[in-house]
Design a protein that fits this description.
Blueprint (H helix, E strand, L loop, with lengths): L16 E2 L5 E2 L4 H15 L11 E8 L1 E2 L6 E2 L5 E2 L1 H19 L4 E7 L3 E8 L2 H10 L3 E2 L4 E3 L1 H10 L17 E8 L5 E3 L5 H7 L4 E8 L9 H8 L9 E4 L3 H10 L22
Parallel strand pairs: 3-7, 3-11, 4-9, 10-12, 11-13, 13-14
Antiparallel strand pairs: 1-2, 5-6, 7-8
Helix pairs in contact: 2-3, 2-7
Keywords: Cytoplasm, DNA damage, DNA repair, Nucleus
Organism: Papilio xuthus (Asian swallowtail butterfly)
Protein name: BRISC and BRCA1-A complex member 1-like
């Protein structure tokens, strides 16, 4: 389930298709073409932003619910971790590593259970975040949906995003804000209110980013893994990094490591290349 392209597939009947005689079927109308063009411009015309490692304010949205209490991640040494415990483990790796890269990085913690709840305000002390995360206990997921509108209401109260000015685009902002959603449920589909005024505002901010790591059950046929993944995609404004992993301890660590990249210094996810160069 790789992150899908922003533009619709060319198999979309609103764009082009071929009939039995081999002729192309044109767009339905000029309006359809204009909409497609506007989508391309909006999603792929990257703004001219300073490529600087300015401090980040990172909001960690930690999901504390699980679907299957018998599910485990197994490490190479034979030790096992339950899903929520593994999310806490990779969170610890991320926070300490990010803090080592830039000690001015600040972290905040939001708990995801029946609804989002702001737990810890911004701090540049990793122990504050990790001790609070360790204190929070997991619980079995019983809901079929979770409404993210409450999350946007919380963000509106707790964060301030630096303004982007076209005239001052070469000047770095004082900081950027990033929200990282560590989601671990496979049967609870997030409800992302696309008409929420503050969410609409956030999606237009060049110094605000949302990244997603979905850790789902292995048997996707028995769960709603694809529905959950598709729903979380609605958080993406075109610049997000979105990863999904099942019960694979190595891959979940790889994914969280990829999220260490600074939003102002990384390419679009579809253009990333983590392979090593050839040796001569």
């Amino acid at each position: 389930m790789d992150s899908p392209d922003i533009l619709p597939s060319c198999s979309n009947s609103n764009v082009t298709d071929s009939n039995d005689s081999g002729n192309l079927r044109p767009l339905k109308s000029q309006e359809d073409f204009s909409e497609l063009r506007d989508q391309a411009i909006e999603n792929f015309q990257k703004p001219n932003l300073p490529n600087v490692n300015v401090p980040e304010k990172i909001i960690i949205c930690l999901d504390l619910c699980y679907d299957n209490e018998n599910a485990h991640y197994r490490l190479a040494d034979g030790s096992t971790y339950r899903p929520v415990k593994m999310l806490k483990r990779v969170l610890e790796f991320f926070v300490y590593t990010k803090h080592a890269i830039n000690k001015r990085t600040k972290f905040a913690l939001v708990m995801l259970k029946d609804e989002p709840c702001w737990i810890q305000g911004f701090t540049n002390n990793p122990k504050d975040i990790l001790s609070m995360a360790e204190y929070l206990s997991p619980e079995e997921s019983t809901s079929e949906t979770i409404d993210f509108q409450k999350l946007f209401q919380i963000l509106k109260q707790e964060i301030e995003v630096p303004e982007y000015s076209q005239g001052d685009c070469i000047l770095p902002p004082p900081y950027v804000v990033r929200m990282i959603v560590l989601y671990g449920r496979s049967n609870c589909v997030p409800q992302i209110p696309q008409d929420d005024p503050y969410f609409i505002y956030l999606k237009k901010q060049f110094y605000f980013y949302i990244d997603i790591l979905l850790a789902h059950e292995e048997d996707c046929a028995a769960y709603k893994c694809e529905e959950v993944y598709d729903a979380l995609q609605d958080l993406d404004n075109g610049y997000s990094y979105v990863y999904e992993v099942s019960r694979n301890a190595t891959k979940i660590h790889d994914c969280i490591a990829k999220l260490l990249a600074h939003p102002l210094q990384r390419p679009l996810q579809k253009n990333t290349d983590y392979s090593f160069g050839c040796r001569y």
